[in-house]
């Protein structure tokens, strides 16, 4: 390296001193010398903007750094680290930083999932770098590998465990046989679930990260609204047990994949095909030997399939103040090195505009749980119905058998059936499920879970 | 991105058209448009230097690109991809490229493991970029994450399964109970082992990669000679079975870790401590729940422990023409993007000079296999000997019991014992093993394996 000019200083502004921000500040201060050696310039933390200067912090930080005037702080900085979260005032401050010519490092997945595209364009136009590794999968380097290391490859599919709360809950249910409610209570007790866990358990957090991963992986731009999202609240202990018996595990996955489907009728290329990308979040059955099945507790992992590289997986802690701070500091040092070397920063490339495909375009395997009358001929009627709708059955297992109750009204006993299909389209599967619900011998459809990795 | 000047062309020279080179050429030609869109300039393959223009190739490539004059080709190029392997003429050609101001992308682990330091310095001095993701762990992005994503963190330990041949063999032995010889034969049959597998099974290949990983992870420079290396040729089916019984798996790991040891006597800071790095390759026992234990067949994975990020793992295919080509192309596009944007390329940072510590500095747990006389008092004598040498025993299990043979000379039956120690230094363990060998009740020490991940 050219002899580093260690008297050169870069002014760093930190917006937010919460869970992650406090750790970033701590590391910038405690490791200032090591960071300076690696960067080639001193990273001087010149201010920390917060809403309430007197709020208690996880880390003891110099009182004189705190300010409530985030805007003024941004205008003094070479590098702005935005860790406030939320849409505003984060968006406005990021735009001010870009306008001022400051490099921006953010972890704001919610903002990027809805507004990423316009922010990336503005950063590119201003020739400033906007980095956001911390927005997806905490400590795990994933965005930089996708953008840079796989720049010469073609990603075909991304499957991510990107929400630690839901992975902990499902893993707990799998390990202990607990109900969803009990596992959620344990997650809350241990701090893996927030007081209001809605964003996590309904899959919205995973969906935001899925949109960001999809955008980078497929060189086009997806937003939260493009993601088909289903959380884990309907997953039962029975589903988990049946999965386990059959050699599967249930994970909440964010899945982005390139698909080629018949072009819509009436479209210019009707009769031809359309290639696009589907982005979805839902509970998914995976074989227990799949690398993603070995991801326990609140850990995250992103599994990528690329044309040349084949299968790759990136694993680590998806959240937490200090792990996420690692991702922030990686972006800060990388961007700062570029400022020291000179020359324009890296830009976002959007080279394709692949259309968003809805979940209807997806073909996958399904596992359907049924509560059916335990009578002769039921299996035959169910099979026939599937066949009518063009869905082939791979396996059918009876998992529970309940005897006729002597006191009941003469109805027979019932059986719980698990049916795994061959690959089928969402549309045909939905039609099949509707038809099954109409059969008199079916008490209820207890679950419909998609199956991947087989 | 600023409107890409797609009429701008970068001249790419390829040195070598073997396993990996042929695939790199294929991708450069087949995906020229997609690569141009991502790079912002056309990547024009202007020549492929080989020893024998008429040799059969894995891929059909345009005959007019081939040349035997590598030196002339290098001098025409903006980007030189070296995939010849071996020390010379690769080293000379890389130096010519650097002198000529061309960006260099290489996969040459053997060369980098012995000569990396001087090549990095020359590239830095000439302000050209030297990238080598393909030199370690095939398709898996690992060097870029370490260098860039973890730039703001402090790595404390790296444990890698970086040789597919040995991982396949050990995994085969674990899955099927095969002997080492049979597993090696199967590996050879399937193409996971070369005709002469020495470099792989003796651990030299893993050691070269370990040196490169250690250099990047600890911001200092290690060479092949700094690595304590032991291969898998002494691992037996009995070792694997005993490990399995106890809930462990055996993997060949390259381990680089930062250690603090008492300073040597007579040194300036005698009485103080020395912090350095130990780099070693040897068969290792890991708990079956460890993420590295889920790495099967010829897959590779690198497990990193960092101060802020915590545990991370990068998993994927460690070898193969097309997977490795992905890593090469990632480096090519990344470096080319920089050439298009302008400004100096990234440089290597060596900010520390952490001393190399030999394996004597390591403290770890050990699993020792003994063939002992099956007599009363033997366990007591063994325990006493361990205690004398300061090594604590964690568990002792008798795994096999052989009856006294009626025809033998009156000696008793024998027992196979497996002893797992608490953490102990290499020195005390070595002394213990030597003393044990001297006991009359010990027939032989059948194996000594280090244990990690517990």
The percent range for strand residues of chain A is 25-35%
The global form of chain A is: elongated
Percent helix of chain A = 25-40%
Structural class computed from helices and strand pairing of chain A: alpha/beta
What is the rounded Rg of chain A?
25 Å
Mean pLDDT over the full residue set of chain A: 91
By CATH, the architecture of the largest domain in chain A is named: 2-Layer Sandwich
Name given to the CATH homologous superfamily of the largest domain in chain A: Dihydrodipicolinate Reductase, domain 2
Pathway (chains A, B): Amino-acid biosynthesis; L-threonine biosynthesis; L-threonine from L-aspartate: step 3/5; Amino-acid biosynthesis; L-methionine biosynthesis via de novo pathway; L-homoserine from L-aspartate: step 3/3
Binding site for NADPH (chains A, B): 109
GO molecular function (chains A, B): homoserine dehydrogenase activity; NADP binding
GO biological process, one term (chains A, B): methionine biosynthetic process
Give structural notes.
- The structure is a homodimer of 454-residue chains.
- By secondary structure, chain A is of the alpha/beta class.
- The first copy, chain A, folds into three domains: 4-142 and 322-341, 3-Layer(aba) Sandwich (Rossmann fold); 144-317 and 353-359, Dihydrodipicolinate Reductase, domain 2, CATH 3.30.360.10; 362-451, ACT domain (Alpha-Beta Plaits, 2-Layer Sandwich), CATH 3.30.70.
- Chain A has 14 helices and 18 strands.
- Chain A has helices at 19-30, 32-39, 70-76, 90-100, 109-125, 143-149, 164-176, 180-189, 198-201, 204-217, 237-245, 321-341, 378-388, 426-437; strands at 9-15, 42-49, 66-67, 79-82, 103-106, 130-131, 155-161, 227-229, 248-262, 273-287, 299-306, 310-317, 356-357, 363-373, 393-402, 414-421, 424-425, 442-451.
- In chain A, the strands form two sheets. In chain A, strands 7, 8, 9, 10, 11, 12, 13, 14, 15, 16, 17 and 18 form a twelve-stranded mixed β-sheet that branches. In chain A, strands 3-2-1-4-5-6 form a six-stranded parallel β-sheet, with helices on both faces.
- In chain A, strand 11 (299-306) and strand 12 form a beta hairpin.
- In chain A, helix 5 packs parallel to helix 10 (204-217) and helix 13 (378-388) runs antiparallel to helix 14.
- The two termini of chain A are 48 Å apart.
- At the A-B interface, helix 2, helix 6, strand 12 and helix 12 of A face helix 2, helix 6, strand 12 and helix 12 of B.
- Strand 12 (310-317) of chain A pairs antiparallel with strand 12 of chain B.
């Amino acid at each position: 390296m050219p002899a580093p000019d260690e008297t050169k200083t870069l002014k760093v502004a930190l917006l937010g001193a919460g869970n992650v921000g406090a750790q970033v500040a701590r590391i910038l201060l405690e490791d200032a010398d090591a960071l300076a050696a690696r960067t080639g310039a001193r990273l001087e933390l010149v201010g920390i903007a917060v809403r309430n200067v007197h709020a208690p912090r996880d880390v003891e930080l110099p009182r004189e750094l705190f300010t409530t005037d985030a805007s003024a702080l941004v205008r003094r900085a070479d590098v702005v680290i935005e860790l406030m979260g939320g849409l505003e005032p984060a968006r406005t401050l990021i735009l001010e930083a870009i306008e001022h010519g400051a490099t921006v490092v953010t972890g704001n997945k919610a903002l990027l999932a809805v507004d990423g595209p316009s922010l990336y364009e503005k950063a590119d136009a201003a020739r400033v770098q906007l980095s956001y590794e911390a927005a997806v999968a905490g400590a795990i380097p994933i965005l930089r590998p996708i953008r840079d290391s796989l720049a010469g490859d073609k990603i075909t599919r991304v499957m991510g465990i990107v929400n630690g709360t839901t992975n902990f809950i499902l893993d707990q249910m799998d390990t202990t046989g607990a109900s969803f409610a009990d596992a959620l209570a344990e997650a809350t007790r241990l701090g893996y679930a927030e007081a209001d866990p809605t964003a996590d358990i309904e899959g919205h957090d995973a969906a935001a990260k899925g949109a960001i991963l999809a955008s980078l992986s497929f060189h086009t731009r997806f937003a939260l609204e493009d993601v088909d999202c289903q959380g884990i609240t309907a997953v039962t202990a029975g589903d988990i047990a049946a999965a386990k018996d059959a050699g599967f595990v249930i994970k909440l996955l964010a899945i982005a994949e390139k698909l080629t489907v018949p072009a819509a009728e009436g479209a210019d290329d009707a009769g031809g095909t359309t290639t696009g990308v589907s982005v979805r979040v839902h509970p998914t059955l995976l074989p227990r030997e799949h690398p993603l099945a070995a991801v326990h507790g609140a850990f995250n992992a992103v599994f990528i399939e690329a044309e040349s590289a084949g299968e790759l997986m990136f694993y680590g802690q998806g959240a937490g103040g200090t792990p996420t701070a690692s991702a922030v500091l990686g972006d800060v040092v990388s961007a700062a090195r570029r400022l020291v070397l000179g020359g324009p920063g890296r830009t976002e490339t959007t080279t394709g505009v692949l259309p968003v495909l809805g979940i209807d375009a997806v073909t996958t395997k399904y596992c359907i749980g049924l509560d059916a009358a335990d009578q002769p001929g039921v299996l035959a009627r169910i099979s026939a119905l599937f066949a009518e709708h063009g869905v082939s059955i791979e396996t059918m297992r009876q998992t529970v058998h309940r005897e006729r109750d002597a006191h009941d009204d003469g109805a027979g006993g019932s059986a719980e059936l698990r049916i795994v299909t061959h690959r089928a389209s969402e549309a045909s599967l939905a039609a099949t499920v509707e038809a099954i619900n109409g059969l008199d011998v079916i008490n209820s459809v207890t679950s419909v879970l998609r199956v991947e990795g087989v």
